[in-house]
Amino acid sequence: MSIKYHNFDWRCSITEMPQATEKCLHCCGSDGKAKDVYKSESDARQRAQYIERTRHGTRLYVYRCPFGNGFHLTKKIGRG
Ligand SMILES: [Zn+2]
């Protein structure tokens, strides 16, 4: 019996982390700063998964910007 996943390190598998390249002009987070905008839902989801892996206990949700600027991440469901 061998442990197949012994050498697996997800940190090595992510070479290009999706980065938000823009800030939304209309939306700001609970800290009052402009929210990051992701151009596609999959980009936002990848970023969310990365954050969830690096910050244990953090759960993030992807939602569409209500102003049509792309996609945002939020820790709360139903609100940005
Ligand atoms: Zn927005």
Index terms:
two-stranded antiparallel sheet; 22% helix; 80 residues; alpha+beta; binds zinc ion
Short description:
By secondary structure, this protein is an alpha+beta fold. 22% of the residues lie in helices and 24% in strands. It has helices at 10-13, 41-54; strands at residues 22-28, 34-37, 61-64, 71-74.
Task: Describe it.
The protein is α+β, with helices and mostly antiparallel strands. It has one domain (18-74). 22% of the residues lie in helices and 24% in strands. The protein has two helices and four strands, in the order H-E-E-H-E-E. The strands form two sheets. It has a two-stranded antiparallel ribbon. The protein has a two-stranded antiparallel ribbon with strand order 3-4. Strand 1 and strand 2 (34-37) form a beta hairpin. It is globular and about 30 Å long. The chain starts with 9 loop residues before the first helix and ends in a 6-residue tail after the last strand. The relative contact order is 0.22. It binds zinc ion. Zinc ion binds next to strand 1.
